[in-house]
Amino acid sequence: MQLEQALTILKDEGYKYTEKREDILNFFNKEDGYRTASDLLNYLSKKYSGISYDTIYRNLHLFHDLNILETTELGGEKHFRLSCGHDEHHHHFICKSCGKTKAIESCPMNHIRQNFDGYYIENHKFEVYGLCPSCL
């Protein structure tokens, strides 16, 4: 997702533009992979002294609710990244060291569904964790 597209979504959904929100989106636009609220706080505190985790989390959850950010859980902590912009259903490989991701184009549910005849599967999440070539 591009920065301009994310800002347009905010505006179209009735949320006001703020410099902090743009800085948050710029942070994720520059990063290649998932990042934590702490990473974002460290980045923003250089410009906004006294910024709180409450402000960080409120905006992260807003961006997630608007599908601007994707989330995953690594090591018991929620991580965020800009939505990758794939329109089709897909999953990710996530590097446990640097947080970089790579799209997995096929979905294992296509194979697994045949073992659940008579069940209603509402949703699923599939992620593969390991180390990217740069972190090996």
Automatic annotation (TrEMBL):
- Summarize where Fe cation binds, as residue positions: 89, 124
* Signal peptide start and end residues: none
Name its co-factor(s): Mn(2+); Fe(2+); Zn(2+)
UniProt KW keywords: Cytoplasm, DNA-binding, Iron, Metal-binding, Repressor, Transcription, Transcription regulation, Zinc
Which residues participate in Zn(2+) binding?
95, 98, 132, 135
Q: Give the GO molecular function terms.
A: DNA-binding transcription factor activity; transcription cis-regulatory region binding; zinc ion binding
Pfam families in the record? FUR
Extract one GO cellular component term from the record: cytoplasm
The record ties this protein, via SUPFAM superfamilies, to: Winged helix' DNA-binding domain (SSF46785)
Q: How is the cofactor bound?
A: Binds 1 Mn(2+) or Fe(2+) ion per subunit.
Q: Which GO terms describe its biological process?
A: negative regulation of DNA-templated transcription; regulation of secondary metabolite biosynthetic process
Q: Where in the cell is it found?
A: Cytoplasm
Q: Which family does it belong to?
A: Belongs to the Fur family.
Q: Which PANTHER family match?
A: FERRIC UPTAKE REGULATION PROTEIN, ZINC UPTAKE REGULATION PROTEIN
What is this protein's record name? Transcriptional repressor
